Transport protein HsrA
Amino acid sequence: MSEKKFHVNLAVLATGMMAFSGVLIETAMNVTFPTLMETFNISTSQVQWVTTIYLLMISIVVPLSSYLIKNISRRKLFTVSSLLFLVGVVVDAFAGGFIMLLVGRVLQGIATGIALPLMFNIILTKVPMEKRGMMIGIGNLTTSIAPAMGPTYGGVLTTTLDWTYIYKLLIPVLIVSTLVGLYAIPEEEISVSDSINAKAVLYLSVMFTGLLMFFSYLEQPLGWVALVVGLISAWLFYKTNKQKTLLNLVVFKNAWFTIYLMSFLVYQILLLGVSFVLPNFIQIVQGVPASNAGMMMFPGALVGALFAPVSGKILDKLGFKKPIGVGILFAILGWLMLIMVIQTGNIALIILSHVTFMIGVGLSYSNVMTVGLSSIKENLQDDGNAVFSTLQQFMGAISTSFVAIVVGLFQSGKSDFIQGTSTGSKVALISLFVLLLISSFFVIKTFKDKQNL
């Protein structure tokens, strides 16, 4: 029996469509929070789980991607991912309650956690070397344009139709991507090369869930119980992971890797934090419809997305200090402007501040990842990439939970819900600004080191 042809371009298109859809609905849902709070009669701290549980699932699945790709055929992984995504989207398109909505988000998170690494695996293993750089660029562009479109997509649909159409319109897209992928990706023989460290997976999952629940229920006894469980699970994961590696933690012995990883994660925290604060502030405090709130986020997100493909070229030509240093300055300036202008409610100034911040993100975000990974030995690159990808999703979930709890505390602590939202939003921005200053200090400090990359 002859082996079926692997249609590389179509396979990348199919997995790219799934990855794009996954990242799109990650940010599209943020503008729907005020609507969901009213529809399901839930609080700010509860509604944030729509994003948080999705990112939690991705952060748990991504560390398993290397094992899954080595031991399960690409066709089977693609099929499972497509079916989970499609079922999750259908569940949310017709969700009759908040719990059902979260169930759909769990399925979508698992599917996206499989689809993202699968797309890049196909590019790295099937695309010819002379075309690989272009295809990686297209893959990165796919995942950077989607967050820019998400708030506008979600806002317009929520205002003109209703929030369920965020999912309903994705159903035909996912059916097409599934059919294209099943045609393009043939079944290949896979020899099971390794067993998975099931205990490490369990402890990692409990650790992430416990720490996330701590930040989500900070003001309740449940949160502190969850913290204890999370810390115990972290210790058990560390011990078990040493016996059979799931995530290679030796990369943390490299100081540069750790510093630039922390900077990368702080940017991720700020990106997810601001995507929660601004749309909710503008709808609740200013009474602006969801479509306008989504459009308000679009200029900054688009600027960040446009810088993403070219920031690496700037680094190649000028070295890493100039683009990262200038990026830090723009990020600090933009965030400081946001803190100063948010309570004025001036939409133009808020957009300008967000755009300024996103210029800084565009110059720094991918470059700090490049420097971090370049600072470790080549044989540890895959391990470093796994750490970056896993913590990127988890810290995004932590950020959403933290910001929601801060805003929620001020909303419940004041008789005036609108004033509480306004004050809570500013306090949340100030809290995250402190993280930006600390991480920036350590990154700039490395500029004086003599390490060569």
